[in-house]
Specification:
eight-stranded mixed β-sheet; 17 helices
Length: about 575
């Protein structure tokens, strides 16, 4: 009977060759029905870890009890004062502050939908997202209020809640922080928004109202997570409670052996409105009772490194450029890494040189994950029992199926590049109010097309070659910028680099690299010789441009589209 059961399992998993590579204890599938919603997960965490620190920022802490109480206050205001109903959308526009989890958890617990907004948005981008989502309320940090003021008359917003950086810090630190931000550093442009409400006033009013617990299920929408909009105006990925619960549990199954319930301290430098930090840091680490250390401005490396030295930490998430910047800070190597258990890179490819330097300095490998806003986000992950950099994105997570397909939707042979397509409980329901986009985003048999070119080997290890739209065609040969950037970054004189295609009369397109020097003496001839040593002829960059900086997104991802002009 046991053999028959094993044979049945093998047959059921025959299309998932990667399962043989799973670490001990990682299941082939997860059961997401154990939690009906994110609200249920938040309720459980607040009750289970009530006395522990949940979030820490700018020297202040919120316990799980504080988060429970304050997020219920906000939920009560949304339900009773603002008069919102389950399914209504509420926008949140702020960096990593204590106010973020209070607002987001309150929105979810009220049965409403979170619309995450990038604080770096221009007025045009903000207006589009507010109108596209149909948000009725926005919570905005005062630093961004001037941008909102430019477009609010062109939106359907019914209420604006403003918050200052220090609002949830204890007095007098709150008043001092807000004074310094506004009056000394002058980080708040002048703004005028009639009838707006201060965040602390909203919490106080909500405290006087009854909180109505909402029954939510997997089909209810939790987030409208807007994509980067690299091909035009951004689109809202409709992520349900079921999508998010599933991906949280998939991630937990993968990294569970490294987690220590109620004891972990995670460094959250990625913006929490970014889907990777949202699922892993904000939700998963709350689920396991961790202390989330929020970094408001990771670009201030002096302050960031000083913060890392204030307490032991066990987990760290970020992107390649952030890790690279830290490694090049003179004081980073002096940080105590003795309690660090794992580091995860997401949002962009982790380069070999960065991964190797990170392990040399911290003693801990840099593990890579892969995902998208549309997949909540996790799709693949490097096993934590084999964490050294190997150039792959690892293996698909439990309950996830991945297929490599050609332009006609046919699966390609092992080792052949094709578009990476995904099925699983974490895949979005579709783009918000975009039926035409949805028809293009999914295959006829229901696979989500990621737009990434990838390969898979015979053991099920997946490797991202590049974004489909970023591929460079040189005399009929495909050139993938990721490969070029990885080679260029291996040169000791290179701090950062990016690769794009440029028009060329002879070859159609030519390879161009933009380089930020670590060594001021680095020359074009030296770099070209390095590339010729490691790349076949048509891949060697033809054009070299040295710059002081490279354009980056809010999460630190280098923006090739801006370099292409």
């Amino acid at each position: 009977m046991a053999n028959g059961g094993a044979a049945a399992d093998d047959a059921a998993h025959a299309d998932r060759i990667w399962l043989r590579q799973y670490a001990d204890g990682v299941p082939a599938d997860i059961d997401s029905t154990v939690f009906p919603s994110l609200a249920a997960i938040i309720d459980r965490a607040c009750e289970r870890y009530r006395e522990l620190t949940a979030f820490e920022n700018l020297g202040a802490r919120l316990s799980y009890d504080d988060v429970d109480r304050l997020s219920q206050d906000f939920a009560s205001w949304l339900q009773n004062v603002a008069g919102l109903h389950p399914g209504d959308r509420v926008a949140v526009m702020m960096p990593n502050l204590l106010q973020y989890p209070v607002a987001v958890y309150g929105i979810l617990r009220a049965g409403l939908v979170v619309v995450n907004v990038n604080p770096l948005y221009t007025a045009r981008e903000l207006q589009h997202q507010l109108n596209d989502s149909g948000a009725r309320v926005i919570v905005v940090v005062e630093n961004c209020a001037a941008t909102l003021a430019q477009v609010i008359q062109h939106t359907a917003l019914e209420a604006v809640i403003t918050t200052q950086i220090g609002d949830l810090l204890p007095f007098p630190r709150s008043a001092l922080t807000n004074f310094v931000v506004k009056r000394v550093k002058k980080l708040v442009p002048p703004w005028r928004l009639p009838n707006c409400l201060p965040f602390r006033t909203v919490l106080a009013r909500g405290r006087a109202e009854p909180y109505h617990r909402v029954q939510l299920g997997h089909d209810d929408v939790a987030f409208l997570q807007y994509t980067g909009g690299t091909t035009g105006l951004s689109k809202g990925a409709t992520l349900s409670h079921g999508n998010m619960v599933a991906n949280l549990l998939q991630m937990q199954a993968w990294i569970g052996p490294k987690l220590d319930e109620g004891r972990d301290v995670v460094i959250t430098a990625l913006p929490m409105y970014h889907v990777f930090a949202l699922t892993v840091n904000v939700l998963l680490f709350t689920h396991v009772g961790a202390n989330n250390v929020l970094i408001t401005n990771p670009r201030d490396l002096d302050a960031f490194v000083a913060e890392l030295g204030r307490r032991p930490f066990t987990a760290f998430t970020g992107v390649n450029t952030l890790f690279n910047s830290l490694l090049n800070h003179s004081a980073f190597a002096k940080v105590d890494f003795s309690t660090l258990k794992f580091t995860v890179g997401g949002g962009a490819a982790v380069q070999q040189v960065v991964a190797e330097r990170w392990k040399a300095v911290t003693g801990v490998a840099l593990t890579e994950g892969y995902g998208l806003s549309e997949t909540s986000p996790g799709v693949c992950f490097t096993p934590l029992d084999r964490p050294d950099w190997n150039g792959t994105i690892g293996l698909p997570l439990p309950s996830t199926r991945v297929s490599i397909r050609d332009d006609d939707g046919r699966e390609v042979p092992t080792g052949t590049p094709g578009e990476l397509c995904v099925k699983g409980p974490q895949v979005m329901r579709g783009y918000w109010n975009k039926p035409d986009e949805n028809r293009q985003a999914f295959t006829a048999d229901g696979w989500f097309k990621t737009g990434d070119i990838a390969t898979v080997d015979a053991d099920g290890w997946f490797r991202i070659v590049d974004r489909k739209k970023d591929m460079i065609l040189v005399s009929g040969f495909n050139v993938y910028p990721n490969e070029i950037e990885n080679v260029v970054a291996l040169h000791a004189g290179v701090l950062e680099c990016a690769c794009v295609g440029v028009p060329d009369a002879k070859s159609g397109e030519a390879v161009k690299v933009f380089v930020v020097r670590r060594d001021p003496a680095l020359t074009e001839d030296t770099l070209r010789a390095h590339c010729q040593l490691h790349l076949t002829g048509y891949k060697v960059p033809k054009v070299y441009e040295f710059r002081d900086t490279l354009p980056k997104s809010a999460v630190g991802k280098i923006l090739r589209k801006e370099l292409r002009g």
